[in-house]
Each structure stands twice: as structure tokens, then as C-alpha cells.
Amino acid sequence: MNLEFIIIAEAGILEAQALMLCESIRQFGGRYALSGIAVISPRPDRRPNDVTLKRLNKLNVKYIPLTVESPCPEYGTSFRVLACAEYERVSTADILVALDSDIVFLAEPDLDLGSNDAAARPVGFVGMCTKGEGDPRDVYWRNLCSICEVDYNALPYVVSTVDRQTVKASYNGGFVVVQRNRNILERTADYFLKSVEAGIKPFANEGIRIEAGHGLVSVAGSEYWGSSQACLSLAIWGSNLTLRELPAGHNFPLNSCESLLPEMESGKFGEVIALHYHHLLNDTSIEAPSTLDYPGLPVSGVEWLKKQALPRFQLTVEFIRVLEMQNEKLNHAVRDRDMELNSSREELSRIYSSNGWRMLTKYYKLRDTIKRIVGRS
After folding, report:
1. Are 228 and 100 contacting, i.e. CB atoms less than 8 angstroms apart?
2. What is the mean pLDDT of the segment spanning 291-301?
3. Has residue 348 been placed in a domain?
4. Which of 31, 152, 279, 365 can pair with 145 through a Cys bridge, CB separation 3.0 to 4.6 Å?
5. Any idea what the CATH number is for the domain that residue 135 is in?
6. What is the structure's pLDDT at 349?
7. pLDDT tens-digit readout, 70-88
């Protein structure tokens, strides 16, 4: 089966994260190491820099610049949802693996779908999920099902992976494996757009701010948080498709490592295959978080991450920050120049306007004088 990875990269931290993810696929992908990788840039004003593009090319990664318009640009995930749907329509791969940029592989993943249509991990926490009737979030889920014409009862129950709560099926959208011809990603985007148009948001008017892998999300963007994964669930179960739960070590949340430590120490958790580090590796002032030394993380993968990938990643982050500072200075200079030009134009206009009125006044006085002289004669 022909398999292809889909990753989003944009100017800033996302392009550095995407680069490290691509490196990890080539290093630890095992049977998938040589699979196709499509890195998509959805917004023209946030393209990765030339250095990033050259490094991606060396990794034999296909770079795809798109122009994706989101009805809610403040919710960054919306661009991933819409871009993945657009790529699903044109890809020739049998299997697509849509990944968050803030993931890194430390060992060979198990991406086999078997007879299933999709594979993913349940969400880590209850968050915007519903436990069923009477749950504060249940109205959101029922409204979503209604506008998407999906039977609410078709959604099975799953257990969240960190706080161990039984909720209606909701999966982490940052690691999803799908049969391309099932149109799951396209249907997810369609449901998402319907929910936006209907004004349905999981955290509407709650004033929260979510910390994502690329930084702190705005209040407006945080209102939509989790909506993409809800739409993914409906896109699968609402079409009578089947899903395989990926093993525990896939999409391991590094920010919840402390909660999962007992299972890791006992060996029940299994080996960590894909590390979802969120924002925890973005700080270039430290070499690596101490959580990378916890049991369950593959030694060879962690060694590569610490000694090779992470130093390159941090250098890339610093380089990008320098570029961003230079761009900001340039933007300031351009704004200052434009302000000076506008000010000069306004001054010229004022002077011209003032002189124009003087000349017009002189003309009328001269005309009246000529009339008087002519009248006397």
C-alpha cells in the first residue's frame, strides 16, 4: 500500500518543528522511512524561508504552497483541516497520515489499518468532550451532529488516555491515519465549515486561552479548540466506517508525562513511538527537558533527539527568530517611510490647497476691478 505523510509548515516555529518531524520519519520510520512526505504551506503570507525549503528538498520532501482561506483564521488548526482536505482530493496515495508539526518519531510506528478505515488515539483529557446526557458539553455535540446530519447515537464511547474518563468518541487530530478513498479528511473539513457557519463552538464566550505547540492561542481561536477533532469523529462514525485505536506509545503527550509515569515505570504503557512534545522543546535556553530521561522512551531515539535533532532544531529556531526580528525592523522602516510619505503628501496638499484659495481670491478681486474700470468707461 502506498502511504504518504501530511505535515503543515509555516514561517516561524512551525517550520522548525516540521523539519525535525521529517528528519525523524527518515531516521526512525522503519518500513515507512522512505514514504512520501507532503509539507503544506497553507497561507501565502506565512511561507517557510528558503533555508527550510532547501533542507526539506534534501530530505526528499514534497513542498506544496497553497492558498487556503479559513472562515476563522484565529483558529490555526482550521488551516490544517482545510489543507489536508484539499490534499486528500489530489493525492494518489492509498493511505494518508496527517500529523501535527510538534511530533517527533523515536521508533518505527505501527500504521497498519488492517480492515479498518482509519486509525488514531483517543484524546488525552475530557476537555471539550461529552460523557453523555447531562454533560455541560453535550449540547455542543448534539448540535454538531444535528447540522452534520449524523446520528448522535452512532458515536461510540472511548476512554481518554490521561485522565481516564469515558466520553463520546473523540480523537487527537494531530495523528490520524486514513484510507484516502474514504474521503474522511474532506468530510471532516465539510463538517467543520458547517459548524463555523452555524456558530457552534465548544468554548464559546468562556474567555479561555489554550497553549498550543506554536504558542498561546487567542481567546477567539480558543473558542473553537477541539472542534476539528469532534468533526473528525463524526466524519468516521457518521459514515459507518471503522477505526483502529493506535497503540499507547503513538502520539505520547510529553506535557502529561508525570501523570503517565506509573504506567511507564511498570512497563504497562509500552514503548514511546511518537512523542507529541507540544511547546516543551521550543525553549532554546535549555538543552532538553528532563522528561526525556523517563522510562519507556527508546534509548536510541532519545539519544538521536538530544545529540543531533534537538541541537539542529534549536539552531533553526534561533535562526528563524533572527529572521523575524530583521523582518520586523524592515516592516518598521517601511511603515515609518510610508508615514513620512503620507505626511509629505498631506503637507503638499495643504500648501496647494492654501495657495489655490489665495490665487482664486486674487482672481475674483482682479475680475471685480476690471468690471469696475470697464463700467466707468
Report:
1. no
2. 83
3. no
4. 152
5. 3.90.550.10
6. 63
7. 999 999 999 999 999 999 9
Domain that includes residue 284, residue range: 3-332
Contacts for 197-206: CB closer than 8 Å, 24+ residues apart? 197/71, 198/143, 198/147, 200/140, 200/143, 200/144, 200/147, 200/227, 201/140, 201/227, 202/128, 202/137, 202/140, 202/226, 202/227, 202/230, 203/128
Single-letter code of the amino acid located at 97? V
Q: Which of 50-64, 147-161, 287-301, 316-330 has the lowest mean pLDDT?
A: 316-330
pLDDT tens string 19-72 = 999 999 999 999 999 999 999 999 999 999 999 999 999 999 999 999 999 999
Q: What pLDDT sits at residue 154?
A: 95
Cell, residue 7: 505535515
pTM of the model: 0.84
Three cell numbers, residue 371: 468690471
H or E element in which residue 354 lies: helix 310-376
Strands (E), the chain: 3-8, 36-41, 62-65, 95-99, 103-105, 118-120, 157-159, 166-168, 175-179, 211-212, 215-216, 243-245, 252-253, 274-276
DSSP 203-268: TTT-----EETTEEPPHHHHTTTTHHHHHHHHHHHTTT--EEEPPTTTTEEGGGHHHHHHHHHHT-
- Whether 17 maps to a domain, the answer reads yes
Q: Residue 344 has what pLDDT? A: 65
- Total domains, the chain: 1
Residues in a beta bridge with 276: 103, 253
163 is a domain residue = yes
